[in-house]
Write a structure and sequence with these properties.
465 residues, alpha+beta, FAD/NAD(P)-binding domain, Elongation Factor Tu (Ef-tu), domain 3, 2 domains, six-stranded mixed sheet, six-stranded antiparallel sheet
Length: 465
């Protein structure tokens, strides 16, 4: 190891995990956390890895849940966050929920007890000092204004977002293509030359009126004072557009012009919901222009009234909220380093992942990569067939990842992983073949992920040796 320490800015879940991983792989770590000297409107304590929202890490079932698979992978990689979560569990059925205060205290005590880690309390109010050659920025969605401005200066004004305008994303195999059809407006081809780039769900006038009624009546999420954001005309929530007039949506994101349902060519649609491919695999499709403040349960109920989406399975639901994140596919290399200043790595929610576990997972890999750099070698990304590798591919623009033009934060889901080469078989005469095939596919993908992760761990150990 070099004498140069790894500086980690931010003591949330990603920063805590990065510090632990770097330290246990031999690096000297200085963890910088501004709390409690400088507080935020959300945090209540000075503990590291404080949970400011839910106390749930979501499903813990690796066989049927993508986030459960991520749990399993992180446990195999010695995750501090998962160890401390397991030690502070509270009853939550199949989910991993924790006593939030006990969890944060456990994380803090373990980090402070590690001989390779020192904690420095204070704000990094600007660019990290030039003498710091190995830095991880893990400051999360509540990055301080001074550091946000410094990151913006490094990356360019148009590469740092302060708000999410998120539309729901639907799994392709849950869309009823006997009802929906593929077509681009006026059959125009795009850059890829595809004149059928959108999935279209047609609405009659009665369908549209019922949808607007449900949309206006559904419960909405209200912003906290510290989350309050102005609305931008280019990303208005659909319910705000509907409140401006019942016809607003069908002259906006739901306009029917230039589209013809081939099954009823003489029956012109009154309104159309369009979905656009969201990943290279074509397994995920986003609902165009459907950013929303509806509560999650309401979104599922209202959006399933759309013809063709009655059985929709959502990889992500919509939202509009404050969330500082960088345009990672444009800015970061495969080692999570800023392309224009590679001494800086980014980790956690600021990279464009959603969720406690996802943020910690990026911190886990960033910490190991920083330790490898301190040891004079490099570390390859985990395979894209793993949940953790798929997340990193999403944010770094790998061959399965998001593009820089359409990048938005996302939770882990099976749609980010490459499909199986051979679909799993199910017994003949199954009473519920679709459901059984889905369960078998998830299990096969999870087993593949854990096998491939073990191979990657072996390669990492060989490189370090």
């Amino acid at each position: 190891m070099t004498d140069q320490p790894v500086h980690i800015i931010g003591g949330g879940l990603a920063g805590a995990e990065a510090a632990w991983q770097a330290a246990r792989h031999g690096a000297r770590v200085i963890l910088h956390e501004m709390r409690p000297l400088v507080g935020t409107a959300a945090h209540k304590t000075g503990d590291l890895a404080e949970l400011v929202c839910s106390n749930s890490f979501r499903s813990d079932d690796w066989r049927t849940s993508a986030v459960g698979l991520l749990h399993a992978e992180m446990r195999r990689l010695g995750s501090l966050i998962l160890v401390c979560g397991d030690l502070n569990q509270t009853p939550a059925g199949g989910a991993l929920a924790v006593d939030r205060e006990g969890f944060s205290r456990t994380v803090t005590s373990r980090l402070l007890a590690h001989p390779n880690i020192s904690l420095e309390v204070g704000e990094i109010a600007g660019q990290p000092p030039a003498a710091w050659g190995n830095v991880i920025v893990a400051t999360g969605p509540l990055t301080s204004p001074a550091l946000s401005a410094a990151i913006q200066a490094l990356t360019g004004e148009d590469q740092l977002s302060f708000f999410d305008a998120i539309a729901p994303i639907v799994h392709l195999d849950s869309i009823d293509m006997e009802v929906a059809w593929k077509q681009s407006r006026y059959d125009k081809g795009g850059p890829a030359g595809d004149a059928a780039a959108y999935i279209n769900c047609s609405m009659s006038r009665d369908d549209y009126e019922r949808f607007i009624d449900a949309l206006l009546a559904a419960p909405k999420t209200e912003f906290k004072d510290w989350e309050h954001v102005p609305y931008f005309e280019g990303c208005l929530p659909i319910e705000v557009m509907a409140e401006r007039g019942r016809e607003t949506l069908r002259h906006g994101p739901m306009k029917p012009f230039g589209l013809t349902n081939p099954r009823r060519p003489t029956d012109k649609p009154y309104a159309v919901v369009q979905l656009r491919q969201d990943n290279a695999l074509g397994s995920l499709w986003n609902m165009v222009g459907f950013q929303t403040k509806l509560k999650h349960a309401a979104q599922t109920e209202v959006f399933r009234t759309i013809p063709g989406l009655a059985g929709a399975v959502f990889a992500r639901l919509g939202g509009l909220h404050r969330n500082t994140f960088i345009n990672s596919p444009a800015l970061l290399d495969s080692a999570l380093r800023l392309k224009t200043e590679p001494r800086l790595r980014f980790a956690g929610q600021i990279t464009g992942v959603e969720g406690y576990v996802e943020s910690a997972a990026i911190g886990l890999v960033a910490g190991r990569m920083a330790a490898a750099q301190a040891g004079g070698h490099s570390l390859a990304q985990p395979p894209p067939t793993t949940a953790i590798g798929a997340l990193i591919g999403h944010i770094t623009g790998g061959h399965l990842g998001a593009g820089a033009r359409s990048f938005q934060p996302m939770n882990i889901n099976y749609g980010l992983l490459p499909d199986l080469e051979t679909p799993p078989s199910i017994p003949a005469g199954s009473r519920r073949p679709h459901a059984e095939r889905g369960r078998a596919k998830k299990l096969a993908m999870a087993e593949r992920a854990l096998r491939d992760l073990e191979t990657w761990i072996g390669a990492e150990m060989a490189t370090a040796a």
